[in-house]
Specification:
By secondary structure, the chain is mostly helical. It has one domain. The chain is built from two helices and two strands; from the N terminus they run E-E-H-H. It has a two-stranded antiparallel ribbon with strand order 1-2. Strand 1 and strand 2 form a beta hairpin. It binds zinc ion. The site of zinc ion has 8 residues, from loops. Zinc ion (ZN) binds next to loops.
Length: about 120
């Protein structure tokens, strides 16, 4: 803390005092420095909030990517379901014609395919 002379009453005052404690004259230098400090802290606050916003946007982006890949996997799964069902239907028919399988296998396969196709169509629309 340095001392300086008041330009009004010439008393020694602190250079950090906003006004002279003796005559009340404003210390423009100290006021200016305080304003500069205030501006710097305002800018710092704005920077911090920008960084926070950027982080939020980044996390939203990665959330969206995760959702997209999950949806992609679901679509592939939904596509595989009716495909597996159709293969099962073919196998059931072959087994039925061969006299090795019952009608139950075929019905289950058809049901499986119908459910798979419904899910697939629902995910497409
Ligand atoms: Zn003074």
């Amino acid at each position: 803390m340095a001392l300086m002379e008041c330009y009004e009453c010439e008393a020694e005052i602190s250079d950090k005092a906003l006004s002279c404690p003796h005559c009340g004259a404003p210390n423009n230098k100290a006021i200016e420095q305080q304003e500069i400090r205030q501006n710097i802290s305002d800018v710092e606050k704005k920077l911090k909030s920008l960084v926070t916003k950027e982080k939020e946007i980044e996390s939203q982006k990665s959330d969206a990517k995760r959702l997209q890949s999950t949806l992609g996997l679901l679509c592939i799964g939904a596509l595989l379901l009716p495909l597996c069902g159709m293969v099962a239907i073919v196998i059931s028919i072959v087994m039925l014609l061969d006299g090795r399988g019952g009608l139950g296998n075929l019905l289950v396969s058809i049901l499986f395919t119908a459910i798979g196709s419904t899910i697939w169509m629902a995910s497409m629309s």
